[in-house]
Amino acid sequence: MQDPSVEKDRHGESPLTIGFIGTGIMGAPMAARLADVGHRVQAWNRTPDKLTPLQAAGVVAARSPEAAAHDADVVIVMLSAGPVCDEILLGETGIIAAMRPGSCLVVMSSIPVDTAKGQAEAASPHGIGYLDAPVSGGERGAIEGTLAIMVGGEASVFERHRPLLATLGRPTHVGPAGSGQLAKLANQMIVANTIATVAEALLLVERGGADPAQVRQALMGGFADSTVLDVHGRRMLEESFVPGGAAKWQYKDTQTAMAQIARLSLDLPMSRQGDALFGDMLEHGDGDLDHSALIRELRRRNGMPVD
Predict the structure, then answer these.
(1) pLDDT of residue 80
(2) By CB atoms within 10 Å of each CB, which of 35, 51, 88, 127 scores lowest?
(3) Is residue 184 annotated as part of the catalytic site, yes or no?
(4) Which residue in the list 50, 117, 184, 248 is annotated as catalytic?
(5) What are the residue ranges spanned by the domains of the chain?
């Protein structure tokens, strides 16, 4: 690991003190990357054992969320859902109250648009900048630092923190607070619907008598090609469903999307059907599998073997 006392990190920026909240599948490699480039990272996780491997990478284990936020230049939050984030962030004993003026709160969790806007409003009177910056790219993207990062908030705050976010992937400013979450909902709609379509296509060719693996290979490079066909299509064929992105979190996001769609008075039938399929998948006990395991739900519907 690079010594945190170095004058500049690998992006040419002075090292920062970063509070990192949530070190699960995504958060752990993200925190490790930030420490690796020379930032001082003090992390908290509800399950303390998950911090132990990170300490070898130079991450300091904080005893509480407030301790992680103490004297931090930036606090990054990577928790599972909006209510969990609000519980940690808001109120007299929340992280926002513990942060110093001039610092910045970056919420990289996937949360409802209105939740992000509320957090931004709560941070502002304390003189704290706010960015909602959800990500796409899964565990592999977090490990490799290639995440797509969709950022909402003030443009000036984004520009100040662009080099930091670039350590984790490719940040793009998409609008005011809450816009990052809107972009993530669009991403999750595309991912969910494409997973369903790829699964249906593979079942079509399987039942029709073609070789699904060879059909997938034939489609690569054409207009039907996509990351989902490449990565998740392979997982479907290999029945390799160790979660990079668990189906239960995909469903959480599609449910959030459906609520936002209703608020905007839109009729989006493809997304409605995709959301229902993931709901059925969870009802059948597959919520902890990778979201590519949606093919199992479609197999059930069609009387095809699942295990």
Answers:
(1) 83
(2) 127
(3) yes
(4) 184
(5) 17-176, 182-301
